[in-house]
Design a protein that fits this description.
With about 400 residues, the chain is of the alpha/beta class. It is built from 13 helices and 13 strands. It has helices at about 20-25, 30-40, 55-70, 95-100, 115-130, 155, 205-210, 220-240, 260-270, 280-285, 290-300, 340-370, 385-395, and strands at about 5-15, 20, 45, 80, 105-110, 135-145, 165-170, 175-185, 195, 215-220, 250-255, 310-315, 320-325. A 5-stranded mixed β-sheet has the order 1-7-6-4-5, sandwiched between helices. A 4-stranded mixed β-sheet has the order 8-13-12-11, sandwiched between helices. A two-stranded antiparallel ribbon has the order 2-3. Strand 4 (about 80), helix 4 and strand 5 (about 105-110) form a beta-alpha-beta unit. Helix 12 crosses helix 13 (about 385-395). It is globular. The N and C termini lie close together (about 10 Å). The relative contact order is 0.16. Bound molecules: oxa(dethia)-CoA. Oxa(dethia)-CoA binds near residues 34, 154, 227, 257 and 287.
Amino acid sequence: MRRYAQIIGWGRSLPNHILTNDDLERIVDTSDEWIRTRTGIRQRHIATDPRETTATLAIKAAQEALRVADVPASKVDMVIVSTSSPEHIFPSTASLVQDGLGAVHAGAFDLSAACSGFVYALSVAHGLIAGGLAEYVLVIGSETLSRFVDWSDRSTCVLFGDGAGAVLVAASEVPGGVLSSVLGSDGSGGDLLIIPAGGSKLPASLETVASGQHYVKMDGRGVFRFATRIMASAAQEAVERAGLSMDDIELLIPHQANRRIIESAMKQLGLAEDRVLIDLDRYGNTSTASIPIALCDAIEEGRVKQHDHLLMVGFGGGLTWAAAVVEWSVPLPLPSTSWWRIAQHSGAFHMAQVRSFGRRALRRLYNVTVGEQEDDNQPSRTVFGRGLRRLRSRLSSGRSSGQQPPKEP
Ligand code: UT7
């Protein structure tokens, strides 16, 4: 029986702080008029609270997606976080999100494909589900690029915003869901959009920091030219691969980088504005988060109906591009969830925090007390030592308590 990958849950999370174009006029030599006419952006959300990070935004968006789908985190098989502003080089942000959600049976990894990343991750989720390797995959795009932007560089700091969007993709026998995808890359253009330092090629040093090499550097015109060329062709190819024509597409959800880029794609594809979702005026360019955030907006605005064909197209650093066609299968609007289910979900999310805290505390306690001196071949002399050893073996076996058997294709 063929397995389809259906989006059954969705959510987004945005930092509270809003930075308007007027605010930016006080920071750099720019104007509301320039930003609006050259990009279409009016404001963006910025994570000013240091406790708000790429992982916390991702967790909130994913919790919302799980709530909408009414699926517990324990059922998720894989967490994919697409991001260009990860918490660390390692561990992956996805692992932190998996822990924060209490997705105790899930694998987790980050996906780096810049602004195209969400569509890349959606395509990977489709593959995992179609191949029988997963039943539920959380696909999250999350960014706090404001922390990698040089706030004295007017050519980049006016563009980006922070936020996260997530979808829960589920295996289904109902035809529809992800129908096609197109993924592309041209690394010869890698230097057009880059954070030069902080990786293995140019590790962070006093010099790299002093020269601002850890900030986003962009050849705006170069990326603009690439984007206006690639968006329409990737979109067209994804539609053809789905066995459809552009007339069958009810809604285009493009990466929200620049209104002029989107308008150029609309023109080339012959799509009028009522078939295109544009929300960059409110959020700026949230990179890989822009498409799932826009999907949530489209649903909220009543612009998505059951059996609609949605076309998602992203492009960005790498250079990369990605397009996918999704046949929407969930009837909308959703019936309201009972207060009891909502309470159950928030209870489970709180328990996940308690569990995470407990595991960290036990690990620390073990290391401080017996950890390094203990020879595993020798029996512990005290009841306390034996108890800790048992706990340690449970901690190191990680998911052993609920490990699911591998699924056969
Ligand atoms: O998410 C994917 C990655 N990013 C993108 O997709 C971005 C793609 N590129 C773009 O969206 C556009 O190229 C930008 C919005 C970044 C720039 O727009 P542009 O129309 O290509 O402007 P430009 O870079 O050609 O600059 C035109 C002028 C320059 O002044 P001069 O040299 O003509 O005197 C810039 O210095 O605008 C100036 N400028 C600004 N002026 C006021 C550049 N940034 C600003 C600014 N405020 N913030």
